[in-house]
């Protein structure tokens, strides 16, 4: 990825904010095994370094499918409370994240953050109020659906029913489309956002990569690294992960180059487990994406930040994707309302300082609590 331009600071904004920059990376369908530090044959030097010098979340859980996980990240509420517990939101389905839910970017925006999203939304778009720019993001560039061609950005839901899915703001981004591989394109866009923002003011950047979801497409130069993998799907998938790792390297270098790094919290998370039928691996966990076995809901995750009190550690506290909402809002000096009925907890002390879980987190470990949650899901 090339250098994305010169940083111009607005005049009169020289005093740094005490609020940390929040960089949240969501990747799609990355298996628990599919990162170097979990013993994979896939080479991920950047992810390994970011995790090793931060805090590895080794007891981290999400939902088994895309839309439910993303809804929980955006609202801090279990998907059973937003009506998104059944499956993903389909391209022709008139549904979206319910508008009465105050989203994470809305909360951070109220706290003074500039909010930007690059990448995959997949929380509905059937009416204007569902669009990312109506849900708290100042800018949006990416796809509204769950998957599509990495180069043409077309998605076919059924034979003869195809649509172009690359958007900027609320319009199709025809003029932005140069046929660039989406992992590279989203990285370039994220870097341009960082280059044009004043690092003395807080930013929330949500970078939701399409990778490594099917279809298995990747520039040929990445395939050269994995000639020894006999399975063609696994070989392509491994190459896609390597491309993603390179994107994370370029992002990290940009955060340093443009002055964000020293006051930054970066969270990395997969939205669900890997799909073995599309090259992914969750070994030694049982199950896959779409199942409630560990392989479907236990995710790759870590936090990287100079602001962590204890770095180079493993956090084994039970962390759930709903926890990012109260954790990040609190870190950003925002406010949480009592009537929001959040299911997540502020887990920053457990992550940063290695403190034992709070009483709320301890209650989660109670088998009765988990049983009630499962019963509630199936009713």
Draw up the topology in text.
Elements: E1 21-27, H1 45-52, E2 55-57, E3 60-61, H2 66-75, H3 104-110, E4 114-120, E5 139-143, E6 154-158, E7 161-164, E8 167-168, E9 171-172, H4 182-196, E10 203-208, H5 220-223, H6 232-257, E11 264-270, H7 294-297, E12 301-304, E13 313-315, E14 319-320, H8 324-331, H9 348-352, H10 359-364, H11 367-378
Helix pairs in contact: 4-6
Summarize the structure.
It is built from eleven helices and 14 strands. With 379 residues, the chain is of the alpha/beta class.
| Helix content, binned percent | 25-40%
Beta-strand percentage? 15-25%
Q: What sequence of helices (H) and strands (E) makes up the elements?
A: EHEEHHEEEEEEHEHHEHEEEHHHH
Ends: how far apart?
48 Å
What's the domain count?
1
Q: Describe the main β-sheet briefly.
A: 10 strands, mixed
Name the CATH class: Alpha Beta
Topology-level CATH name: Alkaline Phosphatase, subunit A
Would you count the extended β strands for me? 14
As residue ranges, the low-confidence spans are 1-13, 366-379
């Amino acid at each position: 990825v090339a250098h994305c331009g010169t940083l111009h600071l607005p005049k009169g904004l020289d005093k740094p904010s005490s609020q940390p920059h929040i960089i949240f990376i969501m990747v799609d369908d990355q298996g628990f095994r599919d990162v170097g530090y979990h013993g994979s044959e896939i080479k991920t030097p950047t992810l390994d370094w970011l995790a090793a010098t931060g805090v590895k979340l080794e007891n981290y859980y999400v939902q088994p499918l895309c839309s439910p996980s993303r809804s929980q990240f955006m609202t801090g509420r279990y998907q059973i409370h937003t009506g998104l517990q059944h499956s993903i939101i389909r391209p022709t389905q008139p549904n979206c994240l319910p508008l009465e839910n105050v989203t994470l970017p809305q909360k951070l925006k109220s706290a003074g953050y500039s909010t930007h999203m690059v990448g995959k939304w997949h929380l509905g778009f059937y009416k204007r109020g569902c669009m990312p720019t109506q849900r708290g993001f100042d800018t949006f560039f990416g796809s509204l659906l769950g998957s599509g061609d990495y180069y043409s950005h077309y998605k076919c839901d059924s034979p003869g029913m195809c649509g172009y899915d690359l958007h900027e703001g609320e319009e199709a981004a025809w003029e932005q489309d140069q046929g660039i591989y989406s992992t590279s394109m989203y990285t370039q866009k994220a870097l341009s956002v960082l280059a044009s923002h004043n690092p003395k003011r807080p930013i929330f950047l949500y970078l939701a990569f399409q990778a490594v979801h099917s279809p298995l497409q990747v520039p040929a130069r990445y395939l050269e690294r994995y000639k020894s993998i006999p399975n063609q799907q696994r070989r392509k998938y491994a190459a896609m992960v390597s491309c993603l790792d390179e994107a994370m390297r370029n992002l990290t270098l940009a955060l340093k180059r443009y002055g964000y790094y020293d006051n930054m919290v970066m969270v990395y998370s997969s939205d669900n487990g890997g799909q073995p039928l599309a090259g992914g691996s969750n070994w030694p966990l049982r199950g896959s994406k779409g199942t409630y076995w560990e392989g479907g809901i236990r995710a790759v995750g870590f936090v990287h930040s100079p602001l962590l009190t204890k770095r180079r550690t493993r956090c084994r506290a039970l962390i759930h994707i709903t926890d990012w909402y109260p954790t990040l809002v609190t870190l950003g000096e925002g406010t949480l309302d009592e009537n929001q009925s959040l299911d997540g907890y502020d887990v920053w002390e457990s992550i940063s300082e290695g403190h034992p879980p709070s009483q709320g987190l301890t209650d989660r470990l109670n088998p009765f609590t988990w049983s009630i949650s499962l019963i509630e899901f199936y009713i």
